[in-house]
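seq:
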Amino acid sequence: MHQAPAMDDGRTRNRLRPWIWGGAAGLLALPAIAMRWFPASGVDWRAGDFVVMGALLAIAAGLYELGARSSARPAYRAGFGLAVLTGLLTVWVNLAVGMLGAEGSAPSLMFAAVLLVAIVGALVARLRPAGMARAMAMTGNAQLLAVALAAALGDYRGNELVLSGCFALPWFASALLFRHAAAHRG
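struct:
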C-alpha cells in the first residue's frame, strides 16, 4: 500500500535536507583536504576564509530550508534552490576574484545591487510563486543591466562581460520555475 508523504504544517517534508547540509559541509571540507593532502594545489585558506565560507554556506542552506517550507511544489523548490545557489555563487565569485575587475572594485559591487533586487523582490512577493517569478526575472534583468553598465563605463575583456552576463541565465531559469509553480497550483 502506498502511503502519502509525511506532512509538516500542510507541506511535505524536505527530503533534500541531509543532502543540502551534508553538501555544504563537504564543500567546506574541500579546501582543508586540498591543503592537507594536495599542497601543490595552491589552496591556502586562513581561518577567516573558513569562517566566511561556512557562514555563506549556512546562510544558503538555511535559505533553501525557508524555500522548502514555503511550498511543497517541486518547481517552486527548484526555483528557490537555483536562486539561492546563484546568489551564493555571485557572492563567492565577488569575494574570491571579483565579477569584473578585482574583488571589491566598483563594478563588482554593482552585483551586490543585483542581490538586493532578488532579496527585496522576494520580500515584496512574500515568497509567493507568481511574485517570485517576477522578482527573479527582474533580478536577471538587473544582472544584465550591471554588465551593460560595466561595459559602457569600463575597459573589460569580452570574456569577463560574457561570463558575468551568463549569471543572468539561472535567475531567468528560476523565474520560469516559479512561473510553472504558480501556474500549476493544487
